[in-house]
Write a structure and sequence with these properties.
TIM Barrel; Alpha-galactosidase; elongated; alpha-galactosidase activity; alpha/beta; 28 strands; 11 helices; disordered N terminus; Immunoglobulin-like
Length: about 525
């Protein structure tokens, strides 16, 4: 009888039936979504040791590491075209002459983590050796090099596979990583083929839900729509992955911010894909927003849910660990639209008042329950909403997204007619502005003023004795613009680096949603 059972068990295993369920991952990693940088989006196969080291150093010096961007990940093309005589993967000696162990040591010495790429098939997407059939050998190599993160792709996989085949292939590497004894975060990249949100939480720490992202608005919007409905699968240690960030890779300023905001609200990995060495101040102003990052990294581990969608206007609500709710108002249309919801619809408790903190402009307002904003084309407005709290309106500096400098009364004087410019933020009274109940913007006892009583494009901004005139009425809008008479406060020439230096005078100009017309309270 024992022999019969053994033969039967062998036959069942051979045809792939009744295989035992996959063990849960339970590696204790990625209790919040991973953050970092990956080589693929910008460089594809044009990678080398110098690029990776320069980017690692920049992530430290720019403040990205301290904001949570800790993974430095190699993508495809890091290896030679064939394994060595012992069957091991070999790093390309021309690209990585010091070897991957040394590169990992370099990254670790700077307080960062080292990520690598492979594929669950017989070859990678660029036709380098895959890990299928070599899982334990490759996992051992990764561990010996000090790898902390594996992105595991799906190229070179057999045709005609079922979901069960996918689970088996990806579980093989999961088990191999576990057997090394080294904690390695595991990113499944099967492109959403077999509904990974239904099985991957037991196999990997994150799983791609879509095909590859590209640096255009159509791709961002399409991927958002595929990923937003999968919120129930996300939890600490297991995340839906709508692919890497294209922020700073060619889209416009508002699209970059919308992309970043939507990914944060969906508790997605924040893995930068741009060439950070040439990134603009505006790009870093997006990547480094600690308040939006906090929404993504919230310890409750909930992915935001879409609570309404109509006519290209979406509202997302993400509950946070302290009882607040992050509310995103999203406009997919080609013109500015007003997007609205309520605190009750967002899941907040009944309260006498709610404080709405705009996480980009930093303005705080008080509401009885309405949540509404004019949202730019392809843009978002994100509020952190707290019940039984009110907003504040203290004097604060106003910092520009294109320059990282503050609106400044030149020379810190109190003389009417003094020009208003941008200058390094220093906390002086000449940079401390208050929006008054009369609609003025006031510092040093004077009001921001469109020179000559005009409100025409090109009018320079000065300070003047407050008199209540229309040329002294300014409004900070939810999109971060400051407007007067339909025109925006603009850093002259601020669309180029040369226009963002100390002393450049501000002016009124037609609103264009660019970074040189975007401001936040500090």
């Amino acid at each position: 009888m024992r022999r019969v059972l053994a033969v039967l068990a062998t036959a069942v295993a051979a045809i792939g039936l009744a295989s035992p369920p996959a063990d849960a991952l339970e590696n204790g990693l990625l209790r919040t979504p991973p953050m970092g940088w990956n080589t693929w989006n910008t460089f594809e196969c044009n990678i080398n040791e110098t690029l990776v080291k320069q980017t690692t150093d920049l992530m430290v010096s720019s403040g990205m590491r301290d904001r949570g961007y800790t993974y430095v990940n190699l993508d495809d093309c890091w290896m030679t075209r064939s394994r060595d005589g012992a069957g091991n993967l070999v790093a390309d000696p021309a690209k990585f002459p010091s070897g991957l162990k040394a590169l990992g040591d370099y990254i670790h010495a700077r307080g960062m983590k080292f990520g690598i790429y492979e594929s669950a098939g017989t070859e990678t997407c660029q036709h380098y050796p895959g890990s299928h059939g070599h899982e334990q050998t490759d996992a051992n190599s990764f561990a010996s090099w000090g790898v902390d993160y594996l992105k595991y792709d799906n190229c070179g996989s057999p045709a005609g596979e079922t979901q069960q085949d996918y689970v088996r292939r990806y579980s093989a590497m999961r088990d191999a990583l576990k057997a090394t004894g080294r904690p390695i975060a595991y990113s499944i990249c099967e492109w959403g083929n077999f509904s990974p949100s239904t099985w991957a939480p037991d196999v990997g720490n994150l799983w791609r839900t879509t095909g590859d992202i590209t640096n255009n608005w159509g791709s961002i919007d399409s991927i958002y729509r595929q990923n937003v409905g999968l919120a129930s699968a996300a939890k600490p240690g297991a995340w839906n992955d709508p692919d890497m960030l294209e922020v700073g890779d060619g889209m416009d300023f508002q699209e970059d911010r919308a992309h970043f905001t939507l990914w944060a609200a969906m508790a997605a990995p924040l893995i930068a894909g741009a060439d950070l060495r040439s990134a603009s101040v505006a790009t870093f102003s997006t990547y480094l927003n600690s308040d939006v990052i906090a929404v993504d990294q919230d310890s409750l581990g909930k992915q935001g849910k879409r609570i309404s969608s109509s006519g290209g206007l979406d509202v997302l609500a993400k509950p946070l660990a302290d009882g607040d709710v992050a509310v995103v108002l999203f406009n997919e249309n080609s013109t500015m639209k007003t997007v609205s919801t309520t605190a009750a619809a967002a899941g907040l408790p009944a309260a006498s008042s709610y404080r709405l903190t705009n996480l980009w402009s930093k303005e705080q307002t008080t509401s009885s329950g309405a949540i509404s904003a004019a949202v730019p084309s392809h843009g978002t407005v994100i509020y952190r909403v707290k019940a039984n709290a009110s907003g504040t309106s203290t004097a604060r500096p106003l910092q520009g997204a294109s320059s990282a400098r503050c609106i400044d009364i030149n020379g810190n004087v109190t003389t009417p007619g003094t020009k208003v410019d941008i200058w390094d933020c220093d906390g002086g009274t000449n940079q401390s502005w208050t929006f008054t109940g009369a609609g003025e913007l006031k510092a040093n006892g004077l009001c921001l003023d469109a020179d000559g009583g005009s409100s025409a494009a090109g009018t320079k901004l000065i300070v003047w004795t407050c008199h209540g005139g229309a040329n002294q009425k300014f409004k900070l809008n939810p999109d971060g613009s400051i407007t007067q008479a339909g025109l925006c406060v603009d850093v002259t020439g601020g669309d180029k680096p040369a226009g963002n230096v100390n002393g450049v005078q501000l002016e009124l100009w037609g609103c264009n949603d660019d970074a040189n017309q975007n401001w936040q309270l500090r």
